[in-house]
Amino acid sequence: MSDKETKVKVTNLTKKFGDLLVLDDISFDVGKGEFLCIVGPTGCGKTTFLNSITHLYEPTSGHILIDGKEVNLKEHNISYIFQENSTMPWLTVEENVRFGLDIKSIPREEATNRVSEYLKIVGLEKYKNYYPNQLSASMLQRVVIARAFVTEPDLLLMDEPYGQLDIELRFKLEDELLELQRRTGTTVIFITHNIEEAVYLGERILILTNKPTKIKSSVFVDMQHPRNIADEEFVEIRNKVTDLIKWW
Ligand SMILES: Nc1ncnc2c1ncn2[C@@H]1O[C@H](COP(=O)(O)OP(=O)(O)OP(=O)(O)O)[C@@H](O)[C@H]1O
After folding, report:
1. Which Gene3D superfamilies match (predicted)?
2. Which atom of ligand 1 is nearest to the CA of 40?
């Protein structure tokens, strides 16, 4: 980890499904406000890991602490963004973004102000009364991003959120994500198959092995944003991560 204060501490995390050992004694820390990327082979257990953090799956053994306390969804505020469009079609853009604040019973005026602030940041203020089926793919992703950040999460988990988008749109949304993360200081764990994406976004990249999954290596990306994918240093790090993975 970097010299940042620890936000998330994973210790000896093991997850089995019956006899199938998926996560094998995984330990690592994530610093407060860190942007950590995780890459690994298909089926190695990336989603299982995220589901263990949110306690959708009970770990077989080991611990996940946030701010020094065992993760607990009643106490910790964790946002989750997946690849699939997860907007709610029956709610307007504004209502979608507001959803998490209403669940947490944030006072009405504060919620309205926060929603308006985040809609402005993602450039959707004019569309606040639209429904998801009236929006483009990039606008839908912006709704999802605004909804995740507006609750000011302790931890934002992202599972291949841009996997199905074209490359130009992906870079644009990634830049916006980095800007929002910088402004809010949110701690992010971002899972991807795409090595270039991991080097573009991450302060650090954890590389996982095939099942039973361990951490093979950890690579720091000490480069300023916005990063240039053609830059010599960028290419060097991308090649290093590729060599470490070699799952094909
Ligand atoms: N609920 C479950 N019951 C039994 N086995 C499961 C369950 N969830 C996941 N697995 C198994 O755990 C392994 C890891 O699955 P997981 O979906 O976490 O991998 P992944 O790295 O996210 O995959 P991908 O790269 O395809 O996104 C797989 O072998 C899968 O079959």
Report:
1. P-loop containing nucleotide triphosphate hydrolases
2. 21
* Amino acid at site 180: L
Instruction: Provide the pLDDT confidence category of residue 7 given band limits of 50, 70 and 90.
Output: very high
The pLDDT assigned to 2 comes to: 54
Residues in Cβ contact with 135 at an 8 Å cutoff, skipping those fewer than 6 apart: 93, 127, 143
Atom of ligand 1 nearest to the CA of 193: 25
User: What is the value of pTM for the model shown?
Assistant: 0.93
Q: pLDDT-derived band of residue 41, with 50, 70 and 90 as boundaries?
A: confident
Which residues' Cβ are closer than 6 Å to ligand 1?
17, 20, 22, 42-48
**Ligand 1 atom index nearest CA of 57:** 1
Name the closest-CA residue to atom 16, ligand 1. 45
pLDDT tens digits, residue range 56-100?
A: 899 999 999 999 999 988 889 999 998 777 899 999 999 999 998
Domains detected in the chain: 1-77+156-248 (3.40.50.300), 86-152 (no CATH)
Amino acid at 59: P
Ligand 1 atom 28 nearest Cα = 43
Which pLDDT tens digit goes with each residue over 156-176? Answer: 999 988 887 888 888 889 999
Ligand 1: which residue has its CA nearest to atom 30? 43
Q: How far apart are CA 126 and CA 124, in angstroms?
A: 5
